[in-house]
Specification:
alpha+beta; two-stranded parallel ribbon
């Protein structure tokens, strides 16, 4: 094995984080606050009967409403948001 040096460069890293808590504990609000601090565009995948609408006047975000908790629909929504260029999901 040849050992070599390379220049240290900062890459754009992505945060992967899950928020867990009881209904009404502030997961959506906290996630939106964190997304705002990270900067960039934000998309919410809302599976809770459009509950994200409560934050429409406080945060700049787009939303995808899912009517079921199907894994296939989640994956499709994630892919659609990624293709649209959203930086926070």
């Amino acid at each position: 094995m040849a050992i070599k040096f390379e220049k240290l460069q900062k890459d754009k890293l992505r945060l992967r984080m899950a928020l867990d808590g009881l209904s009404g504990s502030g997961k959506t609000y906290t996630g939106l606050q964190i997304a705002g601090l990270l900067g960039g565009t934000t998309c919410i995948i809302d599976t809770e009967h459009r509950s994200s609408k409560a934050y429409g006047n406080k945060f700049d975000a787009s939303v995808i409403h899912l009517e079921s908790h199907s894994l296939v629909e989640y994956i499709e929504a994630i892919n659609v948001a990624a293709e649209a260029g959203f930086e926070n999901l």
